[in-house]
Hints:
- The complex is a heterodimer of chains A (107) and B (120).
- Chain A is mainly β.
- Helix content of chain A is 0%, strand content 50%.
- Chain A is built from no helices and 11 strands.
- In chain A, strands 2, 4, 5, 6, 9, 10 and 11 form a 7-stranded mixed β-sheet that branches.
- Chain B has 120 residues and is mainly β.
- In chain B, strands 2, 4, 5, 6, 9, 10 and 11 form a 7-stranded mixed β-sheet that branches. Chain B has a 4-stranded antiparallel β-sheet with strand order 1-3-8-7, with no helix packed on it.
- In chain B, strand 7 and strand 8 (78-83) form a beta hairpin.
- Chain B is globular.
- The mean pLDDT of chain B is 97.
Amino acid sequence: xxxxxxxxxxxxxxxxxxxxxxxxxxxxxxxxxxxxxxxxxxxxxxxxxxxxxxxxxxxxxxxxxxxxxxxxxxxxxxxxxxxxxxxxxxxxxxxxxxxxxxxxxxx
Amino acid sequence: xxxxxxxxxxxxxxxxxxxxxxxxxxxxxxxxxxxxxxxxxxxxxxxxxxxxxxxxxxxxxxxxxxxxxxxxxxxxxxxxxxxxxxxxxxxxxxxxxxxxxxxxxxxxxxxxxxxxxxxx
Lengths: 107, 120
């Protein structure tokens, strides 16, 4: 099975900071990589699909890049509502797999 | 408006059974693959199973094969997960999710989840 390794597992940052989260696949997954945001007590929500496509309604401060095995999610200027947990996800073939998550906390 | 509403969770003893349901509305249910994804308390997300549009293709994570069965009723716009021989490690919030595809397969809509607790 393809494993997804996400880093860091937690991150402290301030409003206005630029933040980058990385996700590495154990083998090439082309651009079959998605990113989700989850707030406490809520279901995850889609941010980025196909590595770099912004889901409708998601603010443009979120961006994704990468292909093959290495991917990044960048938040250009953190807003208070962005403090949450972020997961990468690959789904081209089963089993679909997620990264272990990155908890973004207020510094 | 796309809506996915799960139900059927609860407290069950180890070895017991439970059937989860997911009622879909606001889209053409029969046109989409659907998935179940779970999240143990305080843990990450874990894909459980998925099913194609007409129910002819079903896939499962290894640890639930032979114990869980995913199914759907397109006439009722509903997705199901029959769970048998439940174990403590199956304790989780279970989400149903719609699969979309455009350059990648991804979950564009999720339900609010239903909590399954396996404990004596």
